[in-house]
Amino acid sequence: MTEAPESPGEFVDVPGVRGEVAFRLLVEAVEDYAIFLLAPDGRILTWNLGAQRIKGYTADEIIGQHFSRFYTPEEQEAGRPATLLGWAAEYGRYEDEGWRVRKDGTRFWADVILTALRDESGEPYAFAKITRDLTERRAAEERERALLVEREARSAAEEALRTRDRFLSIASHELKTPAASLSLTVASLQRASTSGRLDADRLSSSLARLATATDRLGILVDELLDVSRLTAGRMEFRSEPIDLATLARDVIDRFAAADDADRIRLVGTEPAWVEGDASRLDQVVTNLLDNAVKYSDHDAPVELELGDADGGVTLVVRDRGFGLDEEASARLFDAFGRGLNAEHIPGLGLGLFISHQIVERHGGRIAARARPDGRGSEFTLWLPAARPA
Amino acid sequence: MTAPGRILVVEDDESLREALLEVLGDEGHEVRVAEHGADALETLDGWEPEVLVLDLMMPVMDAFEFREHQRRRAAALGARVLVLSAARDLGGAAERLDADAYLAKPFRLDEMLTTVERLLDDHRAEGAAGR
């Protein structure tokens, strides 16, 4: 085995040659790290057990050879070994991670530290090279990463399944209640009719109930169809100039007919021209107003305010209702994302999801937040402005 | 034929509640209705039904909370309980409620009436035997 060149300093505290010998023996015996010296030109001067184990060469085979043979052909071509020596000479120490090549041609992932050993004039008389084989660790890290990716994919899939299950469960629950009312009322009408108890009062109250249940079923089916069309990208939109103020007033009129007239008012700048599908935007405004009315007390005021911002038209719907917490606001526009405080409000919880989708197809945005004073919520609809009709 | 009984219907859906009131009334029963659990507790104040017809999910107070309050107040403890719901694990829910029978919505009218009569009979038989 070739001796390391005389060093100007001491390797260890033990004074004299014995200490250096002991230290050299220690280094030679280390198996987990390849520790060896390079001459300034890159030729290998010493070798240890770790180097033999990791790289596959015996000391006899490798001492005197150039260390560039540990690099991949691509890196050799790019002049990487010389560059690294240059950097180590310049900065004193250089650490690098990358693929290295064993004697048998196989590759391993290495962590390499190159340290320049300088003489009194400051010139490197050798480089100490310490190499660790991180292949196992890297493989373990990659396995872990792959596992993590897989686990995330699985939990996303499970979440999608849970959402679908929740959808089916809510949808079937919501459909079955009016169905129960329908079947019970029809059966009761049949009984009354056969037993001769069917008078005009009974007939009209039964018919009213049938109408209510049928409407309810119709609305639910429409919602389900909208969601299915929207998620499949099959909903078609007309494109025509619309005055959002007129549209909002029409919607309010419908609510006024249902006794909510006094509590709703419209303020702000008119007209407010946008472009899109009037019936779909009517659906959005109706949904926002319906929520404002549904999620607040019977006489609590609801305000609609028209305005402009960012080259578009805004419609803000403010209520004094149950309000929103931050978490609920974030999930509100998801399918079935309604707030926890809304669990017992009938309906599929799909209204805002549908509205959000419709508004996005119009190039617009919709956002919700709790009102700054903490009482009630505020929904802001923004649509790109358009030229008047 | 079972003699008419006292029945409390607790159901949040208005049209179903009215339909139940009508069909049970047609059988001659004395029927009162409540929109939710809290409403039902008030009805139990000073009136003891023999059968409770309960929806599961209701605003303000659901069936589970209602049953807790009902037991704590010792109101209509002898009443038989029929659960009507569209919930998925209806059997499990009925068991947790300590209900005597359950029917999934939508249910058949005659099936519902027969069940109510059976519960009335049970209630009376047990009452006669000394509960």
Write the layout of secondary structure elements.
The complex is a heterodimer of chains A (389) and B (131).
Chain A lengths: L16 H13 L3 E6 L10 H7 L3 H4 L10 H5 L2 H12 L1 E9 L5 E12 L5 E10 L1 H60 L5 H32 L8 E4 H17 L3 E5 L4 E4 L1 H17 L7 E8 L2 E8 L6 H6 L19 H11 L3 E6 L6 E8 L5
Parallel strand pairs in A: 6-8
Antiparallel strand pairs in A: 1-4, 2-3, 3-4, 5-7, 8-9, 9-11, 10-11
Helix pairs in contact in A: 6-7, 7-11, 8-9, 9-11
Chain B lengths: L5 E5 L3 H13 L3 E5 L2 H8 L6 E4 L8 H11 L6 E6 L4 H7 L4 E4 L4 H21 L2
CATH topology of chain B: Rossmann fold
The best one-word shape of chain A is: elongated
Can you name the CATH architecture of chain B?
3-Layer(aba) Sandwich
Q: Most extensive interface: pair and counts?
A: A-B, 30 and 28 residues
> What percent of residues of chain A adopt helix (DSSP H or I)?
40-55%
CATH fold label of the largest domain in chain A: Heat Shock Protein 90
Distance between the termini of chain A: 94 Å
Structurally, the number of domains of chain A stands at 3
Which homologous superfamily in CATH is the superfamily of the largest domain in chain A? Histidine kinase-like ATPase, C-terminal domain
Let me know the average pLDDT of chain A. 86
What does this structure look like?
- The complex is a heterodimer of chains A (389) and B (131).
- Chain A has 3 domains: 17-133, PAS domain (Beta-Lactamase, 2-Layer Sandwich), CATH 3.30.450.20; 140-231, Signal transduction histidine kinase, dimerisation/phosphotransfer (DHp) domain (Helix Hairpins, Orthogonal Bundle); 240-384, Heat Shock Protein 90.
- In chain A, 47% of the residues lie in helices and 21% in strands.
- Chain A is built from 11 helices and 11 strands.
- Chain A has helices at 17-29, 49-55, 59-62, 73-77, 80-91, 135-194, 200-231, 244-260, 278-294, 326-331, 351-361; strands spanning 33-38, 93-101, 107-118, 124-133, 240-243, 264-268, 273-276, 302-309, 312-319, 365-370, 377-384.
- In chain A, the strands form 3 sheets. Chain A has a 5-stranded mixed beta sheet. In chain A, strands 1-4-3-2 form a 4-stranded antiparallel beta sheet, sandwiched between helices.
- The termini of chain A are far apart.
- Chain B has one domain (6-125): Rossmann fold.
- Chain B is 46% helix and 18% strand.
- Chain B is built from 5 helices and 5 strands, in the order E-H-E-H-E-H-E-H-E-H.
- Classes of the chains: A alpha+beta (389), B alpha/beta (131).
- At the A-B interface, helix 6 and helix 7 of A face helix 1 and helix 5 of B.
